[in-house]
Amino acid sequence: MGSDYAIVGGGIVGLSVAYGLLNLGETVTIFDEGDLAFRASRGNFGLVWVQGKGMKQPAYAKWSRNSAALWKGYAQELEEATGQTLSLQQDGGYGYHLTEESLEQEIKDYTWLKEQLGGDYPFEVLRLNELKKEEPNVGTNFAGAVYHPEDGHVNSLQLFRALAKEVRRKGAKLVTSVTIQKVETAASGFRLTDDSGKVYESEKLVLSAGLGSMKLGPLLGFKAPIRPQRGQVMITEKIPKLMNRPSDTLRQVNEGGVQIGASAEEVDLDDRETPATLAKLAREAIQIFPDLAHVKTVRSWSALRIMSPDGLPIYQESLTCPGAFLVTCHSGITLSAAHARLLPLWMEGSHTAPELDPFGEDRFNV
Amino acid sequence: MFRRLKPQGQKIQIFFDDQEIEAIEGENLAAALLAADVTHFRSNPVSKQPRAPYCMMGACFECLVEIDGQSKQACMIEATVGLKVGTLKDISGVDDE
User: Fold this and answer.
1) Could you tell me if residue A312 is left (phi over 0), alpha (psi between -120 and 50 degrees) or otherwise beta?
2) Is residue B1 one of the residues assigned to a domain?
3) What three-state secondary structure class fits B53?
4) Mean pLDDT, range A213-235, rounded to an integer
5) For position A294, what pLDDT does the model report?
6) How far apart are CA A263 and CA A265, in angstroms?
7) Model confidence at B90, in pLDDT bands (50, 70, 90)?
8) Range of the domain at B35
9) How far apart are CA A136 and CA A113, in angstroms?
């Protein structure tokens, strides 16, 4: 027998939605591809981040802030239920700027965004002398930072583990190491076929397969205009506290290592690392925190972001196959709380569902 | 306690935190330290817990020691005559709190 919901894609996006649906009393079966998938959920940077989101689309800035505001209660609930520590820290974060020009441009962009949001968008500009009071170990050879008080970070691998554990405890069925190859409508909802020919049924369907949605989306009437964007990341040996708050390029994780990242390359489905890009990331990190020059890197990896044309998430119910929902974004950690708390209300047609029109696929109509 | 499976080879002296230790030339440095009853290689900079080699194959970074002012994985280095090895100092300019 089928579940109320089939969730195709058991990464952080799929598990967050599953967790929310289970809380509403729905039954769910989650399908996960396993080691062959690109797995942004394992390669991400681990930020709960508002800064930089929706610079041209205030609705996205608002949505990210909503999720950031929900995070504390959400993390607490998951920690209590699973006994895992998520190491959520939300007391602000920085966007560092190496040059005065880039900082000035950023201030203009945030000033515009703040106006669009009726003044409700907190940020501060910290020049080096002010920044030094907050982060005593920064260097002197860059312009400064934009500080956003709602930014933060989390141990995203522990989040992944906690979600996987908790959805099982709440009764979700997990079907792992399968590739869903076919999805189609059936009399009672949807029929899914995996790579061994096995067939599953469900009343409704959530497509949260990351880059896998490029192929599966059109089968359900979605445009799913997404593409991979490579980001390379490295992590250092564990060191004593070097920085107090995270930034979108540098953060010290709760175990002590410093994670360095934030490259963006359009290289299709190529998730290899390149020494040139890693070297550039390391140079910029040392420019901001000179002590990092003495610290060894222990691992590096790259992962593929799931990008829409405008960088915003896509939340769309299929027009041709009602009951099928596409959920895709490149900020699965930040939005995990909103995906767990709010998206299920939209799927269930609740009158308390959030306004998601700005994130529908009709914005891609020309 | 660890003992060598094949104790043959040229005996040499190395140093761990200025303490003289007998080793065999060319043997794995982490193994040489363990054979000399060194079990506290370093302390985790966050938890302060004592650490010792775990994977012995270059993956876990638990066996980090200081050689020539740099952090090195003891399990990836050979013991050489007079080698000076120490527990890691905190990186320069960083508060240890």
Assistant:
1) beta
2) no
3) coil
4) 96
5) 87
6) 7
7) low
8) 11-85
9) 30
Asked whether residue B95 is assigned to any structural domain, the reply reads no
Q: What is the DSSP string of A68-103?
A: HHHHHHHHHHHHHHH------B-S-EEEEESSHHHH
Facing residue for A242 by CB, picked from B70, B71, B94? B94
CATH number at residue B34: 3.10.20.440
Amino acid at A54: G
- Contact at CB, B95 and A241, closer than 8 angstroms: yes
pTM: 0.90
Strands A258-260 and A297-307: unpaired
Task: For an interface test with B, give the residue of A239, A253, A258, A291 to mutate (most B CBs within 10 A).
Answer: A239
Confidence of residue B95 (pLDDT cuts 50, 70, 90): very low
Q: What is the pLDDT of residue A187?
A: 87
Q: Is residue B4 part of a domain?
A: no
State both tokens at A12.
């952080």
The average confidence (pLDDT) of chain A is: 96
- Say yes or no for a CB contact (<8 Å) between B45 and A256: yes
Which three-class secondary structure state does DSSP give residue A116?
helix
- B61, B91, B95 member nearest A298 (Cβ): B61
Residues in chain B: 97
Chain B contact probe: residue of A132, A155, A241 with most B CBs at under 10 A? A241
Query: Residue B94: pLDDT above 50?
Result: no
pLDDT classification of B92: cutoffs 50, 70, 90 = very low
Give residue B96's pLDDT.
42
pLDDT reading at A191 higher than 60: yes
pLDDT in tens, A86-123: 999 999 999 999 999 999 999 999 999 999 999 999 99
**Quick check: A238 and B44 CB within 8 A?**
yes
Sign of the four-CA dihedral A76, A82, A83, A89: negative
Confidence bin at A1 (pLDDT 50/70/90) = low
Residue B94 within a domain: no
Phi, psi of A95 (to 5 degrees): -115, 105
Collect all residues from A whose CB is shorter than 8 A from any CB in B. Answer: 136-137, 237-242, 254-256, 290-291, 294-296, 298
Joined together, the tokens standing for residue A325 give: 């929902």
The number of folded domains in chain B is 1
| Chain A interface mutation, best of B94, B95, B96, B97, highest count of A Cβ atoms under 10 Å | B94
